[in-house]
Amino acid sequence: MTRVGASRLRTAAMLGGGIGGFDASASFILYPEIRDTIANGDGAAASWVLTIGGIVGAAVLLQAGRLADRFGHHRLFAVGVTLFTVSCLAAAISPTLLVLVGARAVQAVGLAVMGPSSVAIIVDSSPPGTHSKSLGRWGTITAIAGVIAPPAMAVLVGIASWRGAYLSFALVGAIVAAIALPGANKVDVKPAAPNPDLLGAGCIMTGLGLLVLGLVEGNGWGWLTPRTIGVLATSVLLVGFTVVRSRTQADPVVPLDLLKRWNVSLASAVGLIAAIALYAQWVVMLSLLTELWDVSLLPAALLLSLMPGSMAVFATFAGSMIDKVGFGKVMVPGALIYSLLFLPSALGVGAEPNWFLLIPGLIGAGIGMATVWPPLTGAGTRNLPSDRLATASAVIHTFQRIGGALGSAIAVAWVAAGSPGAVATYRDPIWMLVIGGVLIATGSVAFRASA
Predict the structure, then answer these.
(1) 263, 447 Cβ separation under 8 angstroms
(2) What is the helix (H) or strand (E) element at residue 354, kind and residue range?
(3) What is the Cα–Cα distance from 14 to 430, expressed in whole angstroms?
(4) No. of H helices and E strands in the chain?
(5) Strand, coil or helix: what is 182?
(6) Burial of 314 (C-beta count, 10 Å sphere; 0-12/13-18/19+)
(7) How far, in Å, CA of 384 to CA of 185, rounded?
(8) Which of 73, 170, 236, 321 has the greatest CB tally within 10 Å of its CB?
């Protein structure tokens, strides 16, 4: 690929990250109107528009990474952005809620296919010594998209309903596709194993999907009900079966060779912990603002935008520093700042608003996200050959998906178990964030320069 072509494709991959950030933030703004219109006021049914993405994404990610390394990162990224664009058009014209949820599922497939490919493209096409800086820029674009999405969607919903919002998604996807599609078919295909493990692929996809489904729905179903226990137990059995099976396959579905590499396994473990904290923080902070301090939803959303906004400010700088001094010397201080700036809120939040306590924590959240989230992928993919980058990225992101579902579920259950209006109900869950930051810092100490 020419230097110009590589630069163009890297730009498309970074914009692809922005699409993911935009979609994640925008969906919560679109949900109320979807519930009140096409779902006829059924909030439980409409919530599938929000949850289907995490379930399908977790199921598909690992296999998307394997396919990208086999068929080419450029080709799979082009497939992903095309799927996303077409499914957004389908969502915009959906005649029923069922069709809309189906379109959202295909969107999730498109985003999951784009994700590992985009990371591999960014790492593979960046000049030597600038990989973390490039991933930092990817994190910056994702964070900016997350900040822009809520007000932009609020305006679009007012003008053209949620259907117009999905048309805007399709337009953005078409722009990225126009950049990414040229040359996508001029990619060498890695030879396939003579007997691909289709059974293992089906089991791991079903198992991971069921795992996230159980975590997402556990609060609503009840954690000790037969349905929740059955779903989670089935997921564990399917994943465990696939792991054992992968030991004897020529083309294993679970990349055990990568999980034996120190940085990949450590990035996956730290990513799980980081996702628990970083997803829980949204639930914890939103509950505190709207339920304890009685802040209305729009001002609360604007306040919480300080988190991705701060990430956008610091992410590229954090990546540049990692390229110079290494992962630990940036990730460890960033995670500790995250903990320290939330600590005053964990100790001192009261019934009356105290912005001097809260706002530093929101900014600290952005610093923690900037110094941990993109660098985890960089640490896990460091010094890997090009044809393993997407798979390693998919492994790390799968653990992050599971952690995100778990963090959200724990935070919701913790708040729900307390007494409404009691300070402790909303203050005590902040300790999840404080402890999470300490655990992230502890794990980040151990990343190796070559592993």
Answers:
(1) yes
(2) none
(3) 32
(4) 17, 0
(5) coil
(6) buried
(7) 24
(8) 73
Average pLDDT for runs of 10 along the chain of length 451 = 65 85 78 87 83 88 90 90 95 94 94 91 85 89 84 80 89 89 68 72 92 89 94 96 91 90 95 93 90 86 88 93 92 97 95 94 95 92 89 93 89 88 94 96 88 58
Tokens of 224: 């000790």
Name every residue whose Cβ is closer than 8 Å to that of residue 409 and which is 6 or more positions away in sequence: 215, 216, 218, 219
CA-closest candidate to residue 252, choices 203, 207, 189, 187? 203
Distance (Å, whole) CA 200 – CA 391? 16
Please report which helix (H) or strand (E) contains residue 151, including its range: helix 131-180
Domains of the chain: 1-181 (1.20.1250.20), 198-214+222-252 (no CATH), 256-451 (1.20.1250.20)
As to burial, measured by CB atoms within 10 angstroms (0-12 exposed, 13-18 middle, 19+ buried), residue 321 is: buried
The full length of the chain comes to 451
Nearest to 400 by CA among 24, 29, 121, 79: 24
Q: Rounded CA gap, 417 and 432, in Å?
A: 15
Do residues 242 and 273 touch, judged by C-beta distance below 8 A? no
Q: Residue 63 to residues 59, 303, 351, 376: CA-CA distances in angstroms?
A: 8, 37, 48, 20
What does residue 153 show for φ and ψ, rounded to 5 degrees?
A: -70, -35
Burial call 119-145: b when 16+ CB within 10 Å, e when fewer = bbbbbbbbeeeebbbbbbbbbbbbbbb
Q: Which amino acid is at 205?
A: M
